[in-house]
């Protein structure tokens, strides 16, 4: 597909920057301890060494439409050299770009330069062409002298895959500012948007392209070139550093980058009047265990001297030891305020209800001291000796935060119509009280500290929807539950060796050995809504639906308060290990996961039968744990945005699951997931209005 210039109504006459002879030159730093290596060490990835890049750009063509993108390769080179600190960047543009020269650089030069602990980046700016349609389509990159329809005169994606096989780098990333299908590799097996920091530094080989074969990407005069490269550079400079479970971490992973590119390219094409969709794509070249990432340079370079080693501080070392004693991973006692220590600080601050700055301010230091003092206090007979020694600032913050997120005590329910089952195969519903609730602590970039919402009384199923209940729907409607017709192969992500999610399971638990009383998983939000629609056809009265996020969080908060009262543990979930088994089915000692909590054994390494754990005060089971559950709300990163219940691209999950660390039992924890995503740790339950 030709990559065309389209600049909006007033920009159709954008000038073309013609290439004359082109560039074929390298920028190489002195062969000492590299700037990139210093950045990676500061970020906590000292095992990675040098970074190499090949930048290729073709904007002037003999037979294809010329492109106003001659500056894009230069901008990419300047970013890699001046900001990202790459050690060796070779730029090849114009008529210097030939298949022979590319092969020479990849097979002769970079094959010998790039080592097993190095990183390699390949950037291409130009047209993209596709030969064929469907799964067998092949992608091609026209050169200056390439002829239309003569694919032998172009560089194919198969050429790139072949050249890539000679590069033994630890991490490889291909950024293709062109649109075509026939990509080498396959869709990523793991969810790159949710990749953990422990996985981040693992081996990785990915391809990101600007769009699909049926799309046209655009260039705009005001942006100095293509919208893709403009968005790419903004993202790499930190805009793509998404808020995840650890808050902003000053690392831009390939998953974060792809997500940001999709949003920013859509925003830019709309701004400049381009109505057609542009959808950046990502592929794995090989089985990647990690994800290519970029340290945000400004976050890791010391202000006074970007070349020097990070300063070592005795105070930082003491703080790291204290955090380790409290159960947080700082990566060791180094005396350096590196990323791992900042992440540990963010987690500690979140657990304490403090501002999640990642910095050791006075309030945080006092809270650490107080937490350490708490470790030494007697635990029996309600002994609170030493309580007065807690800093008043810390106690005041704790009181304020708890008051903000704890809902009012619900009014008692009338005894009638507490439990109902509208049909024989319907889930049992329990009437629960409403109340005023305030959404709990949010990511550091959410400007709304708390949002209060009134929740009316409603019915909700006592357990997650079971395999047996879902099977009744599937068999009645012909939706394939047993015969696998929902997909030609595995369509559900399951855990594999190395804490990796791979698409190896069937939809709706097909082929599994789980009983009818296990909760149904491997269901997307769309699958769940199909079941809800079917229930509404079987019954009269108020319509079935998914519970809202506010309803679910209100119930989670009440469940936690109920457990605190019954079991006697405190609200700090990370510092009371027994809560793992008391609250529900989470990642306990029997789990296979590296993040498991080994302090207790809940008896279920995987998903458990519904109602295997004690009910809350309302009689509801497994709100927290067992399976993440779909709620009605479309995902919104900021809770101040309007709620949407239909037309979602991503839905919202609540509650945590059997494979989660205990921190995900917190009522405020929430996750975005594409609405067509199926995983063995995702299920749902249904709700219904009273009238």
Structural classification:
alpha+beta
Unreliable stretches (pLDDT < 50, length at least 5) are 1-20, 185-196, 243-247, 302-309, 375-417, 443-448
Distance between the termini: 54 Å
The side-by-side strand order for the widest beta sheet comes to: 1-3-2-4-8-9-13
How many beta-strand runs?
27
Number of helices: 16
Major pleated sheet: 7 strands, mixed
What fraction of the residues are assigned to beta strands by DSSP? 15-25%
Shape category: globular
Gyration radius, rounded: 27 Å
Average pLDDT: 75
Task: Summarize the amount of helix as a percent range.
Answer: 25-40%
Report what the structure shows.
By secondary structure, the protein is of the alpha+beta class. Helix content is 27%, strand content 17%. The protein contains 16 helices and 27 strands. It has a seven-stranded mixed β-sheet, with helices on both faces. It has a five-stranded antiparallel β-sheet with strand order 15-16-19-27-22. Strands 25-24-23-26 form a four-stranded mixed β-sheet. A hairpin with a 6-residue loop joins β5 and β6 (138-141). α2 runs parallel beside α6 (227-239), α6 (227-239) packs across α7 and α9 (314-325) packs across α11.
Q: What layout of secondary structure does this protein have?
A:
Elements: E1 24-28, H1 35-42, E2 51-57, H2 71-83, E3 88-93, H3 99-113, E4 119-125, E5 129-131, E6 138-141, E7 155-156, H4 157-164, E8 171-179, H5 197-200, E9 204-211, E10 219-220, E11 225-226, H6 227-239, E12 251-253, H7 254-271, E13 281-284, E14 293-295, H8 297-300, H9 314-325, H10 339-352, H11 362-376, H12 392-405, E15 419-420, E16 429-432, E17 435-438, E18 452-455, E19 458-461, H13 467-477, E20 492-496, E21 500-505, H14 525-538, E22 544-545, H15 549-567, H16 579-583, E23 628-634, E24 650-654, E25 670-674, E26 682-683, E27 687-689
Parallel strand pairs: 2-3, 2-4, 4-8, 8-9, 23-26
Antiparallel strand pairs: 1-3, 5-6, 6-7, 9-13, 10-11, 12-14, 15-16, 16-19, 17-18, 19-27, 20-21, 22-27, 23-24, 24-25
Helix pairs in contact: 2-6, 6-7, 9-11
